[in-house]
Design a protein that fits this description.
Helix content: 55-70%
CATH architecture of the largest domain: Alpha solenoid
CATH topology of the largest domain: CHAD domain
Largest sheet: 3 strands, mixed
Number of domains: 2
Strand content: under 5%
Number of strands: 3
CATH class of the largest domain: Mainly Alpha
Order of helices and strands: HHHHHHEEHHEHHHHHHHHH
Radius of gyration: 27 Å
Distance between the termini: 56 Å
Length: 484
């Protein structure tokens, strides 16, 4: 066995011992090596440094399981304390120095303590700059970013990156190029290779481990929650709260889908905490929908219309009440409990799920597992449909939950199943949307039931909308029944 193979096996064993998130670190390492190979000729990086960069990339998150908050320093300490057969003491010092620079908030060269004792601190800093950027390119942890081209004949170097599902990866790479600009004479800039967005995750195959499939989809939902959090707290973009709740719901559905292979984990506790958060955000979202409806009616009225002023007065009152609902949103999303929940979710996906994958080698193919999960979910939906004689009120609301859950299951497994599943997802979405319109009309009628400030014409409009929505819901359901 060659030295390269022995190094790799020793690192892999060390990573397994410390429950490392191998998929992420291996992907980051490949991105880092791709950058290294492209630029080493013009930047004159020693060829032997490639070995050190590879080792640092594979080990850069090895301390996360032991101490998520201080995982960089924890990982450095673990690597320093290990008795390596494949690396000398000087190589280990270089590797840990490179690791210490990988975080986006990592130190500058002059402030990095791990560089102080090295013979050539700038050498380690340059490799750390590459690793820091590569880690940013997989900020999403779903292995979405793909380097399409690197133009080294200009300053700055232009790197085109395909990252359609999580374009924030490109933003993160540019943000993390701060160390690069400090240690290299040539700049670097990352740009998306295309503006096209897609919901399909890359590198997914029918033969994948089911929990690896789960991990990537759940990570996307978690990132979606984080990306919408700031705007949801601010309250200026109402769709941010809606998108956050959708990603919360998708995450919970994924946990429910994969509950069997996750049975011995804290998956159910995480799911329940996510459900509690969603409940706390629900009233504000319902109010947002109601305000949008009132504004539409108000804009459609002429100012000299007899009910215009009355409706405007009622709309102003609802805006003030919406501010109180928004404060509840801020309270939930800014609370220590919510911050702790996000950390728990991250730990669950980075440590717990990969460990389950290592322990469940014979879990089967994701296409087979997905087909079985979808079959069970559709069976539940058919039972509900057989018992449904009325789509209004709570009956329709419960039906909507089942339809929406079935839609998420179909959309999740469509990439590894046949095209009929994708079409089914579209049909289920149409049904869910129709039932949602009906639910909004019902909530509007309930909201104004005893309110004397509301013009009678508004009640009439809502009743008409409810009737139309009910007809649309029945039509969508009939179409679903005919094609299921």
């Amino acid at each position: 066995m060659g030295m390269a193979s022995r190094r790799r096996l020793e690192i892999q064993a060390f990573c397994r011992q410390h429950q490392n998130e191998d998929v992420h670190t291996e992907y980051v390492t490949q991105l880092a090596l791709t950058l290294f190979d492209a630029v080493n000729s013009i930047l004159r990086l020693p060829a032997r440094d490639r070995i050190l960069l590879e080792a640092a990339g594979l080990l850069h998150d090895v301390g996360y399981a032991a101490d998520p908050e201080h995982h960089m320093q924890c990982g450095v300490n673990l690597v320093r304390a290990a008795r390596w057969q494949s690396f000398s003491l000087s190589q280990t010092a270089m590797i840990t120095a490179i690791m210490s620079l990988h975080q986006k908030s990592g130190p500058a060269v002059a402030e990095a303590p791990a560089l102080a004792g090295l013979k050539s601190p700038i050498r380690a800093a340059r490799l750390g700059a590459i690793l820091r950027i590569a880690d940013g390119l997989d900020q999403s942890h779903i292995q979405d970013a793909c380097i399409k081209s690197i133009c080294i004949d200009i300053d700055p170097i232009i790197v085109r990156v395909k990252s359609h599902v999580s374009p924030q990866n490109v933003v993160a790479a540019n943000q993390r190029s701060n160390l690069w600009h400090e240690v290299f004479p040539v700049g670097i800039s990352f740009i998306p290779s295309s503006s096209k967005r897609t919901h399909r995750l890359p590198h997914l195959k029918k033969s994948d481990h089911p929990l690896e499939y789960f991990r990537r989809y759940a990570y996307r939902s978690l990132k979606g929650m984080r990306e919408n959090e700031e705007d949801a707290i601010a309250g200026e973009d109402r769709e941010a709260l809606h998108d956050l709740r959708v990603q919360n719901r998708r995450f919970r559905t994924l946990l429910q889908m994969f509950r069997k292979p996750l049975v011995n984990t804290d998956a159910e506790a995480v799911r329940q905490q996510l459900a509690d958060v969603a409940s706390g955000l629900g009233p504000a979202r319902d109010r947002d929908v109601w305000l949008d409806r009132l504004k539409t009616w108000l804009d459609d009225l002429r100012e000299d219309d007899p009910i215009h002023n009355t409706l405007r007065t009622y709309w102003e009152v609802q805006k003030k009440e919406a501010e109180r609902d928004q404060q509840a949103v801020r309270t939930v999303l800014s609370s220590p409990a919510y911050r702790a929940l996000l950390c728990d979710c991250t730990y669950f996906l980075r440590i717990t799920v990969p460990e389950c994958i290592r322990q469940q080698d014979a879990a089967g193919r994701v296409d087979k597992v997905g087909a079985e999960i979808l079959k069970r979910q559709l069976k539940k939906l058919r039972n509900v449909l057989r018992q449904t004689n009325d789509v209004t009120s709570e009956t329709g609301h419960e039906l909507r939950k089942h339809v929406r859950r079935s839609r998420y299951v179909a959309e999740t497994f469509a990439p590894v199943l046949d095209k009929r599943v994708k079409r089914l997802g579209c049909q289920l979405r149409a049904v869910a949307d129709a039932l949602g319109q009906l639910r909004d009309a019902e909530l509007g009628l309930a909201r104004i039931q005893d309110n004397l400030l509301v013009p009678p014409l508004i009640r009439q409009w809502l009743r008409e909308e409810k009737e139309k929505a009910e007809m649309d819901a029945w039509k969508a359901l009939q179409a679903l029944k005919l094609r299921r």
